[in-house]
Write a structure and sequence with these properties.
single chain; eleven-stranded antiparallel beta sheet; about 20% helix; Outer membrane lipoprotein-sorting protein
Length: about 210
C-alpha cells in the first residue's frame, strides 16, 4: 500500500514538474533572447503616442507606424500628413491637407526616427544595461533597458526602453538629453511583430 502511495506521489510530482517546465518555457525568456528577438524584426506595425517636451511645454502626437526592412518606416500623423523614412536617410512627406509632397533628411525629424524600433535596435548591444522592473500599479513586469544613443546629438543622449517580457514587444521609450532632462516619451500600442506590410504604401507620389 505504501509503495502505491509513493508511486502516485512520484507521478503527481512528475506531472507537476512537467507543467511548470512548460509554463516556464512559454512565459520565461532570457534578457538576451528578448532583445535578440527585437533586433531581428523584419517588419512591424504599431500605434505610437509621442509626448515631446521643451521649454515652452509639451507637444502630443498620435501616430500609426509601419516598418519593412526593404522599404524603411512609414508614419501616419492622423489626417494631416504622412512621412516615409527610407533606408538611405531621406524623408518623403505628403501633406494631406495641401495635397502636396516634399523631401528632407532624417536629421530634421531625429526625435521620431530614434524611436523607430529598427533604428533603436542598433544601440541594443553589450553596452546596454538591463534589469527587471515591476510596476505595482498595473501588476506588470518589464525588462528595462538603458541605452546610450551614440548619435552625436546632445538633445538625444540616452534612452530607457521598457519591454513587455511576456509579449516580447516594446511598450515605452524615454529619451533624455545630455543634461539628463526627459525630452521625448514614446508609448507603443497594438504592436504586431513581423506584420504583413503592403510595401506600396511606402511609395508616396509614385
Amino acid at each position: 500500500m505504501k509503495r502505491k502511495i509513493l508511486f502516485l506521489i512520484l507521478i503527481f510530482l512528475a506531472i507537476g514538474l512537467s507543467f511548470c517546465s512548460i509554463v516556464y518555457l512559454k512565459f520565461s525568456r532570457s534578457d538576451e533572447k528578448i532583445i535578440s528577438d527585437i533586433r531581428e524584426l523584419k517588419s512591424y506595425q504599431c500605434d505610437v503616442r509621442y509626448v515631446i517636451k521643451n521649454s515652452r511645454g509639451e507637444i502630443k502626437e498620435e501616430t500609426n507606424q509601419l516598418y519593412s526592412d526593404n522599404k524603411g518606416n512609414r508614419v501616419d500623423f492622423g489626417e494631416d500628413r504622412i512621412q516615409v523614412y527610407n533606408n538611405e536617410g531621406k524623408v518623403k512627406a505628403w501633406d494631406k491637407i495641401l495635397n502636396k509632397g516634399y523631401e528632407t533628411t532624417t536629421q530634421d525629424y531625429s526625435f521620431y526616427s530614434i524611436s523607430f524600433i529598427n533604428n533603436l535596435s542598433k544601440y541594443l548591444n553589450d553596452g546596454s544595461t538591463m534589469e527587471m522592473e515591476y510596476d505595482k500599479e498595473i501588476n506588470k513586469r518589464y525588462l528595462k533597458v538603458n541605452v546610450v544613443l551614440d548619435n552625436n546629438n546632445p538633445n538625444l543622449d540616452r534612452a530607457i526602453l521598457y519591454v513587455d517580457i511576456y509579449e516580447r514587444v516594446p511598450e515605452k521609450l524615454l529619451v533624455f538629453n545630455k543634461k539628463g532632462e526627459l525630452v521625448v516619451e514614446a508609448f507603443y500600442n497594438n504592436f504586431i511583430r513581423d506584420a504583413k506590410v503592403d510595401e506600396t504604401l511606402f511609395d508616396l507620389g509614385e
